[in-house]
């Protein structure tokens, strides 16, 4: 009987099992952590699966890309060595009642970790703490189904996006927030309540606006000279719409519902001021106005 052919052994390269040399294994830990810091949390976790060494270094990763908290009594994700930085925090409690003390501690812990995006969605339109507008590192605030106090301090020097959906907010707080946010660019107000019959929004920094009035609002006044994109809806109870001219307007969407009484709204001065208008959509009564 003949001999069985011997299997050839593959020669292992000096640089490892890959096609090229392994540069990551020879890097010190501080350099690898600096690389991790420039990745998102998902990418950093994926990279940690390459070796046992990277898996141990992930425990020293100092940033959490996004965190969702349902109970304010739970601590924010962090490691014993040092507190982790959190980019975005979403708070959506599953139960109705939320302890104000626990809620305030959660926001204080998020502010200590340099949070930049905050999203809050409450049950039964609960009140948010007064410190929600005092986190100076915030750039994006999104509030849904909640209520703001009649007065609270506002210090948002870096705020660029503000989204208010089904929020009970008085007219005084709208004025305070817009004055405290000098670089605000995007404002979305959808079915906000708390206005005494009419709502007035005035800002020179807002570039993009989405506005849908609540059912009880009868008047809407928008004074924004720097607008570039506007989306405006009205309801049958709205009697007065005042839209100040915006010379920098580029895109407009106006949906004017047929009112129950005569509507006081002139669209011609707004259109004449927009010399650079490239896209305009008129729906409902806006075509006749």
From TrEMBL:
Coiled coil: none annotated. PANTHER family: F-BOX DOMAIN-CONTAINING PROTEIN, OS02G0105600 PROTEIN. InterPro entries: At1g61320/At1g61330-like, F-box-like_dom_sf, F-box_dom, LRR_FXL15/At3g58940/PEG3-like. Residues 21-58 form the F-box domain. Residues 1-21 are annotated as: Disordered. Residues 1-14 have a biased composition (Basic residues). This is F-box domain-containing protein. It comes from Oryza meyeriana var. granulata.
């Amino acid at each position: 009987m003949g001999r069985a052919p011997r299997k050839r052994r593959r020669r292992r390269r000096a640089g490892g099992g890959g096609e090229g040399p392994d540069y990551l294994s020879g890097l010190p830990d501080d350099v690898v952590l600096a690389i991790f810091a420039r990745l998102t949390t998902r990418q950093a976790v994926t990279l940690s699966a390459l070796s046992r060494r990277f898996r141990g270094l992930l425990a020293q990763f100092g940033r959490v890309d996004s965190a969702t908290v349902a109970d304010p009594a739970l601590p924010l994700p962090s490691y014993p060595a040092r507190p982790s930085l959190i980019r975005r925090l979403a708070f959506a409690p599953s139960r109705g009642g939320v302890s104000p003390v626990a809620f305030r501690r959660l926001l204080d812990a998020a502010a200590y970790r340099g949070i930049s995006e905050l999203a809050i969605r409450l049950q039964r339109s609960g009140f948010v703490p007064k410190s929600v507008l005092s986190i100076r590192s915030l750039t994006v605030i999104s509030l849904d189904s909640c209520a703001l106090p009649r007065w609270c301090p506002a210090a948002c020097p870096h705020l660029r996006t503000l989204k208010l959906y089904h929020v009970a907010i008085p007219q005084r707080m709208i004025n305070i927030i817009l004055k405290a946010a000098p670089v605000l660019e995007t404002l979305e107000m959808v079915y906000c309540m708390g206005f005494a019959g009419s709502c007035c929004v005035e800002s020179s920094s807002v570039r993009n606006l989405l506005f849908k009035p609540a059912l009880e609002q009868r008047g809407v006044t928008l004074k924004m000279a720097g607008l570039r994109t506007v989306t405006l809806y009205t309801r049958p109870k709205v009697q007065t719409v005042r839209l100040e001219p915006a010379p920098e307007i580029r895109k407009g969407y106006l949906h004017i519902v047929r009112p129950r009484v005569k509507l006081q709204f002139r669209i011609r001065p707004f259109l004449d001021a927009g010399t650079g208008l490239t896209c305009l959509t008129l729906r409902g009564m806006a075509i006749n106005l």
